[in-house]
Amino acid sequence: MVKKTKKPIYPFEDWTIRETEFSIETNYRNETIFAQANGYMGMRGNFEEGYSGPDGTSLKGTYINGFYEIHDIIYPEGGYGFAKTGQTMLNVADSKIIELYVGEEKFDLLKGKIHFYERVLDMKKGCVERKIKWESPSGKIVNVKIKRIVSLQRQHLAVISFSVEPINFTGNIKFVSAIDGDVRNITESEDVRVGSNLKGRVLETVERGANDFEGWISQKTQKSNLSYTCAMKNELIGTEKYEVLNNVKEDRVEVAVAFKAEKNRVYILNKFISYYTSKDCDKSETMKLALEEVRRAQEDGFCKIEKEQEEFLQSFWEDADVVIEGDKALQQGIRFNMFHLLQSVGRDGKTNIAAKGLTGEGYEGHYFWDSDIYILPFFLYTKPEIAKALIMYRYNLLDAARNRAKELGHKGALYPWRTIDGPECSAYFPAGTAQYHINADIVYALKRYVEATNDLDFLYDYGCEIVFETARFWEDLGAYIPLKGNKFCINTVTGPDEYTALVDNNAYTNYMAKMNLEYAYDIANKMKKEVPEKYQKVASKLNLKDEEIASWKRAADNMYLPYSEELDIIPQDDSFLYKERITVDEIPEDQFPLLLHWHYLNIYRYQICKQPDVLLLMFLQREKFTIEQLKKNFDYYEPITTHDSSLSPAIFSILANEIGYTDKAYKYFMMTARMDLDDYNDNVKDGIHAAAMAGSWSAVVNGFGGMRVYTDELHFTPRLPEGWKMLSFNVKYKGRKINVKLTHEESVFTLLEGEPIEIFYFDRRVLIKSGENILKGYEEK
Ligand code: BGC
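A: This is the predicted complex of the input protein with beta-D-glucopyranose.
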């Protein structure tokens, strides 16, 4: 079933998202849409001047990627090996605050009268600008313009430029620029997609101060032993005559600037903000570094930072932009998605990309397999250095993964289903730890990275350890089962579909584990031959023996790969086909998402899926299956897939495209491309859906662009939708940058960087030489 598409919320514009009126009803949602981040920190689109709307219509949020508090996970009935300690990304001090007083009256959109309101996110400039013409209750009119930038170039920096112009009066104006440390996370225990279980205030203020135009506040967590400083520096432009007053409270520091403003003159308060945490430097240094950062920024000036931001984005779009001519809604949707992915991704090898980016508190700021399977490809083929950082993050977690495997009585390493810093944080093991496939997902991402970049140094110096330790884990987890013909079976696992849990021989898991084991075997042999010293080093570190490596091959060769002869499909697992089948059409619409309306036992009892499992496997290992197999499996699984996970529609779109289900391909793509912009699931207020956003890129490039990457080969079988005039995107692959431009008449592959390279166009091998290569159907011109 394909659900209906939603009505668009914002006008269709190529590079901008525009909100043309302010309303309490949409405020919460728009705080996510206009959230800004730079991979290190994120700020929701909260108003600088404050918001006096009713409870539940706003979430004040500022987040630092990977900065968290720990808490005990309380189980009424615990069990051995259950995850004990949760981690929650913290809402940190709010530094966005700039209150404006016109005489005695406070600028507040819920008071007085709004003559004009507009907020625009400009994705080329990386800036959100709000313009308001406001009349105070007593009749004073001001033009207000506020620009905010969270700097992509200087990741510890954000800047706000707040300008005011009296329109019908001359009189006193005051700005109060503040950092407020009295912050907490939202508490939500019923729906994990909303918030965390962390109760009350967590951060304790240990230092605060203000001096002239500067202010700072340092806070520490109670249990995770982390601390940070937030510093600000303000400057006033427009008059030399002003008064500065500092106000330092327990958890709040304020810099107030008062002056007499003349009618029709513009006055600007620029605010430079910085955050440094004890994860970035010694904890005694955070204040010094944060203050240095804001001072430097102020010296450089707002304009320079604005320009840098635009330059950064220019380079990003040069690599990553996708152009769709003929559908403005999709053009906007896909750019919005890519922009948010860039905003959300940790680029330092120590952080990753949270399920909701840095825009909200849903899923507690945790990183999932979303990063490795859904998000990584976007960066891999556009900004491979970011993909490398994401895998480096996984490498840095290896010790924690080793400990977890040990705790569960296994050899090797078991990566956490969800975490920030390494330990397993999933409190519900059937849809957490049991998703062992995370191990193979990480290896799959690494393998793709190595294939696409030839970065063998990374593989030999770091990646191989991940591959060996996970292979070791699989070999230990599975067993040769006599009644299954002595095949290597992996029992009691959960595959990607979370509506089926704790099953034997989940097809996805077995195929992916096989890939993991084979890759480990191949790399070990390759290293022995090509880099014997490096091999020796890692072998002695891991105590690797030849017999063990041979055992990986044996397990891979004998892996049990489920297949149903009766139905000629791949069963999701051993028991799936023996359950009652219920199609999505048979379930009343108000029951979705099922996870909020049915007990898991009922969900597990049916053949009903949250998201693709077998079909995802077929996409990831596409070369292993024929198109007929793909179609049969698609026809079988589509009617029973609810798409209750936002990760779902993109994969359906890609595969529908290949099978020739053009309408479905398009509808599924619409569900994913504008999922957050159209608030498809009515929950964008809780944060973006990062994996779905990346899925929409894949749906364009792998779906309509028909790109497949088989081992060491790039294939294209484009299928341009009828309504599109042109689709263009770039692919970085093995040191090349290729622009692919597709129209209904021809396909043009332009080699922008690197040496000529052979690709497959439809099934034909073609050499892409420098400059433009024009291909028509099967024919080269
Ligand atoms: C999905 C998972 C996903 C998680 C975080 C869940 O709803 O079923 O596959 O990892 O959301 O995005």
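The mean pLDDT is 96. The CA atoms of residues 402 and 664 lie 43 Å apart.
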